[in-house]
Write a structure and sequence with these properties.
It is built from eight helices and no strands. It has one domain. The chain has 207 residues and is an all-alpha fold. The protein is globular, with a radius of gyration of 17 Å. Helix 4 packs parallel to helix 6. Helices cover 79% and strands 0% of the residues.
Amino acid sequence: MIDFFLESYKNAPLWHIALEFLVFVCGILSVWFAKKENIWVYPTGLIATVISVYLLYIVGYIGDMIINGYFSIMSIYGWYVWAKGGTVEDNLPITRTSLNEKIIGVLLFFVTIFVVFGIYKYFDYEIKKDNYVEMISSGIFFAGMWYMARKKIENWTLWIIGDIIVVPLYAYRGLGMLSLQYLIFTILAISAYLEWKKILDNKKQLS
């Protein structure tokens, strides 16, 4: 098991490993802050996604690079949306998606898949089986990130599904640290869903 995580880093430059470790730490912190409705979810997430864009560009995983670029943009948007309420008490409340928001989420999912596929074709990249899995996970994460920015509890459902998909994907690609990171993300997302659901249930009882 240890050899699996270390094998892909034997010939990697030290600065590359350091950047990936920073992504690992900031990514986990970001999910933890999201679970706690803490606005630091966005600055920590922004550090992780911006660095990820660069690292993924180097190894040529275009789909994952695009999703992290989108995460960076949505982190800025979500940061603004969460902050504009002022105090923590006045901030955007946790809610469920409306029918229109569900439709938007489905549209984001399919549009993402077509866009990522189109970019692979445009740059004449060979599309392998794992790239199709990557496209599906990218679509799920696109919708999930938008829901998170609006504090919709369904964002955690999508994160859980997407995380479960990419854990074996990154393991297959030999990206041990990323695979471990998304395994931790899965556990945190399940915990966050249960915590947000409890908050919603308490609000129902008070109303």
